[in-house]
Amino acid sequence: MTDSSIIDTNTSRVFDILKFGSICLVFFGHFFGNQIPLIWIPVTTALLVFSFSSGYFTHLKYKPHLDVKAFWKNKFQRLGIKLFVINGFLLLMFIFQGRPDIWTWQTFVNMIGLTGILNWFHIPNLSPYGKGLWFFTLLIILSLLLNRFSKVVTP
Fold first, then answer.
1. Helix, strand, coil: what percent of the chain each, to 5?
2. Rounded CA separation 102/63 (Å)
């Protein structure tokens, strides 16, 4: 069961702004990271703010007991459908462009949001999806850990 009524609207709004700014800063860091010395410091701080606020509001939303079914249903509705639509659009673009290696096993890994595993373990990725959504892989891993740890720490 989720209880969104315990989340303060003003706090949520402030963190929404901070999360948006964090995403923009990380985006900026990806493009200009090699040109600006020490840019990694604010970018890392932005990642910390984003991660902390996401975890904090997830905790508030699902406490005191995590309903795993509601949690994963919400995740799929919020992220899974968007991932499917984005990957479907990219697939059509790749087919239209005549890109090679569309139908490799790496494409399947990319389409289910696990590109990060290929990147982190330096597994060659022949798929036109490229290095892609490594952060989505991290989100899946952290969500699985949340499910596991919520059973351990919840009385």
1. 75, 0, 25
2. 42
- Which residue bears the tokens 């389409």? 111
Distance CA(44)–CA(29), nearest Å, equals 10
Nearest to 19 by CA among 59, 50, 40: 50
What whole-number distance in Å separates Cα of residue 98 and Cα of residue 123? 24
| pLDDT, tens digit, 9 for 90 and up, residues 56-110 | 777 777 666 777 788 788 888 888 888 889 889 989 999 999 998 889 999 899 8
Closest CA relative to residue 147, chosen from 71, 75, 77:
71
The dihedral formed by the CA atoms of 22, 80, 114 and 109, expressed in degrees to the nearest 10: -140
Interior angle at CA 51, CA 152 and CA 34, nearest 5: 140
Compute the distance between CA of residue 6 and CA of residue 60 in angstroms, rounded to an integer: 7
Contact present, 137 and 116 (Cβ < 8 Å)? yes
CA neighbor of 135 nearest in space, from 58, 30, 38:
30
Which residues, 6+ apart, have CB-to-CB distance to 150 below 8 Å? 62, 65, 66
pTM above 0.90, yes or no: no
